[in-house]
Amino acid sequence: MEPGETKTFTFKATHPGAYMYHCALSQPWHHVAQGMYGAILVEPRGGLTPVDREYFIMQGEWYTRGSFGDQGHQEFSQTKAFAEQPELFTFNGHASALNQLFRLEAEVGETVRLFFGAGGPNLGSNLHIFGEIFDKVYSGSPETFLANQETYHVPAGSMAAFEFELDVPGNYVLADHALYRMSRGAMGLLLVSGEHDESLYSPPAPRPGE
Amino acid sequence: MEPGETKTFTFKATHPGAYMYHCALSQPWHHVAQGMYGAILVEPRGGLTPVDREYFIMQGEWYTRGSFGDQGHQEFSQTKAFAEQPELFTFNGHASALNQLFRLEAEVGETVRLFFGAGGPNLGSNLHIFGEIFDKVYSGSPETFLANQETYHVPAGSMAAFEFELDVPGNYVLADHALYRMSRGAMGLLLVSGEHDESLYSPPAPRPGE
Amino acid sequence: MEPGETKTFTFKATHPGAYMYHCALSQPWHHVAQGMYGAILVEPRGGLTPVDREYFIMQGEWYTRGSFGDQGHQEFSQTKAFAEQPELFTFNGHASALNQLFRLEAEVGETVRLFFGAGGPNLGSNLHIFGEIFDKVYSGSPETFLANQETYHVPAGSMAAFEFELDVPGNYVLADHALYRMSRGAMGLLLVSGEHDESLYSPPAPRPGE
């Protein structure tokens, strides 16, 4: 395809689930390494169970000749891509997308379904939300879910759905629990407002003067 | 054991499933790094549900002092093995085994059960078939399957079973979706012949002159 | 918190399961990289099904400027931590903890529930016991288990429960099946004593003179 050109194809969605898509033109790894991918949701007949909030997030990793934090245009490093040693990570395409620019917001009492994918090109993500346990996680059909997940590994080239309920207000950190990736972009924020319930969580008393 | 020697042991297979086997003589990592492993299937009583095709594939990674593509005998690199930085990947023992030498073949309408393992010695595989969604994936008992999987992570030292049905003809690429591994051997082809069904997939119209 | 200071907080455990905990003070990766984490079990109402033995093991990896085997104090290497290239691995905090100092012991006929976690800071573990198949594995709720698992991937930042029964006496090796990690600490021993049952396993006959 040339720039500006459009093409149309049709297909019958035979398998409900959330999936990653990307072009498969030779060589697909180079295109995916430039962020050319997205997410598609195929709902089961009758739809998924209703929730108050749905979010779509895709993690990607980036192989640049320069180091994390270097400014300006960064050349692609094929050496680092082969070594699976990225310089930075993004949620939805920018290292600051969900922790500074577009933080997620919700209210206590709401139910959430987060579709989270690992675009790669190489690395999966170990999704965790600090302070939250996922009620259900499923990659593929919601009928074969896993319950009460703390951290779930999403392989490169796939999506999973994470369902949870917000019980306590606060600023929740979403992260790849390969923790050193957090410091290079694999991190977002979910700001939850609402009434605090001391019976669920009672923080330590502040020091005198705090 | 000396070369040419044979030994016999017997065991009762108590857990149905598909498993990797390898020697555990000290030090097992060196033997596995030389490809000394295989796959064993223990069928449940009454057998697995019949399918039209069954394939067994094991991925392995190789740590050589030379680079991918170098010709002739390659010395083993313990440094790269400790760093988990292989030079090449194989499906069934050769980087060209399933994409050039012995391509898999099947027909539209057939059901397939693919047993896929990650021999390692270190790395798991993120199995994906471009253009296909797995109806069921199970590592271990078929009773605890996961439905509608796009990409499934098989840890080093294990097998999983992937069941799917072939709806549309074409050349399907099997790959580790850690995509840069594809370019160094982690890739095979499944050639599916048969009638095309436009109601399932209608490709873009060719350009004038194509 | 200052050294020697204590603080108290309370919370209602709303999700049964086994979980990893760690401080989330900025920057959590540095604290986790120093081993500041642990395991917590929230039993479902009525408790988990009784077993004869329960063990808690957490794997961690360590990023030192020196190499594996160097003696004395080792400085932390941030470069290796970012590259996810550790020098050594531990089960419960010491590279010799469970293979030399405190080997696990059990008897033939006993049932075991092993809670195994991957503290990280970066790497998951591919838990395998040489010579054993896990009857059930669950990360989170025991209701959504996977049966007959050979090797199970525990992501960094989580725990899983592994249930199995001991049929044959012997010295069983527990390991991260990313095999080269075994040689740098990711390994423990479970010594199982009791009657040998030839109908379950009959080893090869010894050579004359052995």
Describe the structure.
- Three copies of one chain form a homotrimer.
- Chain A is mainly β and 210 residues long.
- Helices cover 8% and strands 40% of the residues of chain A.
- Chain A is built from three helices and 15 strands.
- The first copy, chain A, has helices at 28-33, 78-83, 97-101, and strands spanning 10-11, 17-22, 37-42, 53-62, 88-91, 104-107, 111-120, 125-129, 134-138, 146-149, 151-154, 158-165, 170-176, 187-193, 201-202.
- In chain A, the strands form three sheets. In chain A, strands 5-4-7-12-9-10 form a six-stranded mixed beta sheet, with no helix packed on it. Chain A has a five-stranded mixed beta sheet with strand order 6-14-13-8-11. A two-stranded antiparallel ribbon of chain A has the order 2-3.
- The radius of gyration of chain A is 19 Å and the shape is globular.
- The model of chain A has no long low-confidence stretch (mean pLDDT 95).
- Chain A binds chain C through residues 85, 126, 128, 130-131, 133, 135, 145-153, 167, 173, 177-184, 199-205, and chain C through 7-12, 14-17, 19-20, 24, 27-29, 32-33, 81-84, 120-124, 138-141, 143-144, 153, 155-159.
